[in-house]
Design brief:
With 222 residues, this protein is an alpha/beta fold. It has six helices and eleven strands. It has a six-stranded mixed sheet. Strands 6-7-10 form a three-stranded antiparallel sheet.
């Protein structure tokens, strides 16, 4: 099985929709994705992701867009300081590097910025729900890896249109990395494309292979 994560196009966050530029990016991404042999489309329920998914739905002829509620974008901040810059998880990861912190430490939830941050709560929730969803597809987590319990080696490719923070959370879980490390590793471009490949052999136990990370070459002419 292959899973393709696509961040939404340039957004108007206040209205939760795409900007004029975002529409152009989504159209370009849709054409780029046609070569991936995608079988099913999934999306965050949020408007900017759904609009990006709709471009590929029209381009590919795949009408059904399955909503994955758990892959909505993460929040950051705390109850009285939602979306304040001092709680920004990506800037926080950069600051931790400058002060010599280990971004792959198992104690990262106690680090400045992440302790008491909604981003930590939401990232953990996405990881938990991602494992439940993968289990429903026949890939059951055992320790650090995934057991293929599918009855055959049929290969399917699924596209998930979502968000930068949600993508970081999903990848952190399936690749056994910390959320801060993924924040530092990749600042996802609008309509950036990332590809994971799970072992298709029934009975196998493996970690997914990262085939592609944040490919945005389709944006060069926009």
């Amino acid at each position: 099985m292959r899973i393709i994560l696509i961040r939404h196009g340039d957004p108007n966050y206040e209205k939760d929709c795409l900007t004029e530029l975002g529409h152009k990016q989504a159209a370009a991404a849709a054409q780029r994705l046609l070569i991936e042999g995608i079988d099913e489309i999934y999306s965050s329920p949020q408007g900017r992701a759904m609009q990006t998914a709709e471009y590929f739905s029209k381009a590919s002829g795949i009408k059904d867009i399955h909503v994955l509620d758990f892959i909505r974008e993460i929040r950051y901040g705390c109850e009285d300081e939602l979306y304040e810059e001092k709680w920004h998880p990506w800037k926080g990861a950069d600051e931790l590097m400058l002060t010599g912190h280990d971004l792959q430490s198992e104690n990262w939830r106690e680090y400045p910025v992440y302790k008491g941050n909604f981003a930590t709560v939401d990232a953990d929730k996405i990881g938990e729900e991602a494992d439940k969803w993968l289990a429903s597809l026949g890939y059951v987590r055992e320790g650090l890896y995934y057991r293929n319990k599918r009855p055959n080696d049929q290969q399917k490719t699924l596209a998930i249109f979502c968000h930068g923070g949600a993508s970081s959370s999903f990848l952190a879980r399936v690749l056994n990395q910390t959320f801060p490390y993924m924040c530092a590793l990749c600042h996802f471009s609008h309509t950036g494309i990332s590809v994971l490949r799970f072992d298709k052999t029934p009975g196998s136990l493996a970690m997914p292979v990262l085939e592609l990370l944040n490919d945005d070459r389709h944006l060069r002419d926009i």
